[in-house]
Design a protein that fits this description.
Largest sheet: 8 strands, mixed
Oligomer: single chain
Strand content: 5-15%
Number of strands: 17
Mean pLDDT: 90
Distance between the termini: 60 Å
Structural class: alpha/beta
């Protein structure tokens, strides 16, 4: 007599259903991006992930990673609110980790407040409390708690990592020092989360969990990527210890290194307007995606291994309907000065679909506003933070590449980056950019960008000689700094000549008597904005300008040379001090 049929164990049945659902998600993803964006598929795609979460509840244990998302913020409550709202929408759309009594089980936030304005500190604290009630655990890491932590570690020699700050003015330390202090807090929190597999995800407050997609009708910002699910899979299935994404939307670099290519685009726009009938409809660009991921916004993209583009990029008029050339001339003029606050009106970076699993590759640059690391990678902090240089992420990336090799990767997981508020055309808070009425001063940011480039390419060259773990020949660090400084200064001077030549060309185009905009008082406000833009370019980039003096003066280089030389020489001691701090906070040393 045959034995009665036996059913498979529940866990096997559940696993089969989970794999079938993952197959369905893969098929929906292919349909979502087939031939471009098929937005009609997006709702089904998101729903399929939520169904997967329901199936995962049938497993006896959910071993997926818990994400502790670190968000430094400085005097930017509007951007912070948008950032947190996007995280909540991401969780609701895809359901990563599931809910337990109305709270997301595997997502929490550490809000690291670096604000200096007392009223905005109160607002940030209120935002954290409100967000906590939305269902995502949120820890507000304010100045008092930061000071308490620093006092606990005061004897360990961390000043070259977190800086020296008066307790009475502890805000505005800068993103790198604030992140390093937040990472010490992570170590303290990690020691109490031993039952969880934790990933630390550090982002910027001016970013959102969306991607910006180019369409024939303009850009669309969508929740089309399940960031947390994809990151969990990568860290589960590879040897990744640190993973960096990028950004779409506004560029992640300073206007100090974007002026030449933006002038190309402004000249092309003005030239096109000059050849057009002002009353005709403006010719909008198509769904261009060239430049995405290729640093098209960077004047010196070749330094980073990218091929510099030769064609100008056309402006997409933001007015609805079919506006005429007069209206779009005026519309573009209103966006010109946003450039000095970090927006690039013509070279937006678009999302390009590629399967996340297929996109994982060795990395060399950390985007400090979008990177993830495992708990054992807490042994790395952002180096040279008290120098407050730009390019700290790429510099850190060169060191990570040297030390952990294939454990440092990138993936196609860019976040939406928005530098400016639509209501003001300026950043909510941006150190290094001073705006008074219509005048914008970039000198502090210009200086930090230049010497940030010197540090980055010096570290890159030293890493090829075995730095930071290898023993370098005596004098090599100083020799490298001097050599890179000379190279960077020549590149910046060449670009300065390029900018000023293009500025002359733009002014000649604008003020030619034949141009239609010079024959109507109705165009006077737009012309005034163009003139203000050219004045700001000249005041920041002209020969002998205060910005140029900061990198041309020998005395300035002597000060920066000493600071950078000392910082590089002290890195080994800083790493030891950092490991001691982690040990004090309950994190065992490597190995």
């Amino acid at each position: 007599m045959p034995s009665p049929p036996t059913s498979r164990p529940a866990s096997v049945e559940a696993s089969a259903r989970i794999e079938a659902q993952r197959t369905r998600i893969t098929e929906l993803e292919a349909a979502l991006w087939e031939g471009g964006l098929n937005e009609s598929v997006l709702e089904d795609y998101q729903a399929a992930f939520r169904e997967l979460e329901g199936l995962l509840e049938d497993l006896p244990e959910d071993r997926r990673h818990h994400f502790l998302i670190v968000i430094p913020v400085a005097d930017s409550p509007q951007q912070l609110s948008s950032c947190l709202e996007s995280l909540l929408t991401l969780c609701r759309s895809y359901g990563y980790g599931g809910l337990d009594r109305g709270r997301y089980r595997k997502v929490s936030v550490l809000l690291a407040d670096d604000s200096a304005n007392a009223e905005l500190i109160v607002r940030n604290r209120e935002i954290a409390r409100d967000f906590e009630r939305s269902g995502i655990a949120t820890h507000y890491f304010g100045i008092d708690e930061q000071l308490t932590l620093m006092r606990r570690l005061a004897a360990l020699g961390l000043e070259r990592i977190v800086g020296r700050h008066s307790p009475q003015s502890f805000g505005h330390k800068g993103q790198a020092m604030m992140r390093n202090i937040a990472y010490l807090k992570l170590a303290e929190m990690q020691s109490g989360m031993t039952a969880e597999r934790v990933l630390f995800y550090t982002i910027d407050a001016d970013q959102e969990f969306k991607v910006k997609v180019a369409t024939a009708q303009g850009g669309r910002s969508l929740y089309a990527v399940n960031f947390l699910y994809q990151l969990d899979r990568i860290f589960d299935q590879t040897d990744a210890r640190v993973l960096t994404g990028k950004v779409v939307g506004d560029p992640p670099v300073s206007p100090a290194v974007m002026a030449a290519n933006f002038l190309d685009d402004v000249i092309a726009f003005v030239g096109e307007m000059a050849a057009s009938d002002p009353a005709r409809c403006y010719r909008q660009p198509g769904a261009e995606t060239s430049g995405s991921g290729e640093a098209a916004y960077h004047d010196m993209a070749d330094m980073f291994g990218f091929k510099a583009g030769e064609e100008a990029y056309r402006y997409r008029c933001s007015l609805e309907g079919t506006p005429d050339n007069i209206a779009c001339f005026d519309d573009f003029s209103k966006r010109l000065n946003r450039f000095f606050h970090g927006e690039h009106p013509t070279r937006i970076t678009w999302y390009r679909y590629q399967s996340v699993a297929d996109s994982v590759e060795p990395a060399r640059t950390v985007y400090t506003g979008n990177y993830v690391f495992s708990s054992d990678a807490l042994e790395w902090f952002i180096p040279f933070a008290p120098l407050r240089l730009r390019m700290s992420g790429p510099t850190m990336g060169r060191l990570l590449k040297s030390v952990i090799g294939d454990g440092f990767v990138s993936a196609n997981l860019p976040m939406l980056h928005s530098r400016t508020l639509e209501s003001t055309g300026q950043s909510e808070f941006r150190p290094g950019v001073v705006s008074e009425q219509h005048k914008v001063d970039l000198c502090d940011e210009f200086e930090r960008q230049f010497y940030g480039d010197v540090m980055l390419f010096s570290i890159e060259r030293l890493a090829r000689q075995g730095f930071p773990d290898g023993l370098l020949p005596e004098g090599l660090v100083a020799e490298t700094l001097d050599s890179i400084y000379a190279e960077m200064r020549e590149k910046y001077l060449a670009r300065q000549r390029l900018i000023l030549g293009r500025l002359d060309q733009l002014r000649a185009l604008l003020h030619a008597e034949r141009q239609w905009w010079n024959h109507s008082d109705g165009n006077a406000p737009a012309l005034s904005r163009f003139e203000n833009f050219t004045q700001n370019v000249a005041s920041n980039f002209a020969e002998g300008s205060p910005c140029s003096t900061r990198i041309d003066a020998p005395a300035s280089w002597e000060v920066w040379r000493k600071r950078q030389l000392n910082a590089i020489d002290d890195l080994a001691a800083d790493r030891q001090a950092w490991l001691l701090a982690l040990s004090t906070l309950g994190i065992p040393g490597p190995g």
